[in-house]
From TrEMBL:
GO BP, one annotated term: lipid metabolic process
Cited Gene3D superfamilies: Phosphatidylinositol (PI) phosphodiesterase
Highest taxon above the source species: Bacteria
Protein name per the record: Glycerophosphoryl diester phosphodiesterase
């Protein structure tokens, strides 16, 4: 089973920062998951919330910051200087690093509240620029956005995110043209994983932090787990280097 580090290694490092992604890579995770919003001047910022308030020492919406002003914030302030100052990375920066590192990337489009203009095209452009298509998964709770991605490039790996039980999600995925399912782990059971696998649709639940739960999901046939603790999961299931 593959291990994808949620926001890098968010259980132990400041989420969605380079230091967190590097930690996930260091411990042997197969991939990293990250979240993308857009600044006022159209830069792709790697941060989870619409606002910077929870994870940085700033206040306000990402969409109201210029890229330059966003760079002045510290995304590790909650860790009380343990890791020094960590900037909010751009997607460009993470993709460039991931290419050299040889790690897979799950880009989550956070456009379910604000419909950032041309987000899908900008993300695709970066994937093409770094020739990372074979190692990138694009997921979103905004399924319209996934359909848009599919209409721009039907061969890219898109994954449907959902947090509540759905009726036959593997049928819905095929209808949408999505290639994978990224469900909240609470919604996953043996029957829906088996049915998805029969349709060649991999299931990668989030956020799986308990090894016993991960073991159960592996038995069901899940292809990957998305976890805040990649080190623990790699020890149990193996990683990129084992
Ligand atoms: O992509 C999996 C997971 O990250 C989805 O939820 O809120 O942690 O972005 P969230
Ligand atoms: Mg996410």
């Amino acid at each position: 089973m593959f291990v994808i580090g949620h926001r890098g290694a968010a259980g132990t490092f400041p989420e969605n920062t380079m230091i967190s992604f590097k930690e996930a890579a260091r411990v042997g995770a197969h991939g990293i998951e990250l979240d993308v919003h857009m600044t006022k001047d159209g830069e792709l910022a790697v941060i989870h919330d619409e606002k910077v308030d929870r994870t940085t020492n700033g206040k306000g919406y990402v969409k109201d910051f210029t890229y330059q002003d966003l760079q002045k914030l510290d995304a590790s302030y909650k860790f009380k200087k343990k890791y020094g100052v960590c900037k909010i990375p751009t997607l460009n920066e993470v993709m460039e690093w991931a290419l050299s590192e040889g790690i897979s990337v799950n880009i989550e489009l956070k456009n379910n509240i604000f419909d950032y203009p041309y987000l899908e095209m900008k993300v695709l452009d970066l994937i093409y620029l770094y020739k990372m298509k074979d190692r990138t998964m694009i997921s979103s709770f905004n399924h319209n956005s996934l359909a848009r991605i599919g209409s721009l490039d039907s061969t890219i790996e898109t994954a449907i995110l959902y947090s509540y039980p759905m009726y036959e999600p593997w049928v819905y995925a095929q209808h949408l043209g999505a290639k994978a399912l990224h469900p909240n782990q609470r919604t996953v059971n043996e029957v829906n994983v088996a049915a998805s696998k029969d349709c060649q649709i991999p299931v990668r639940p989030y956020t799986v932090n308990d090894v016993k739960v991960a073991e159960q999901l592996r038995k069901y046939g899940c292809e990957s787990v998305i976890t805040d603790y990649p080190e623990k999961m790699v020890k149990q299931f193996g990683g990129r280097f084992s």
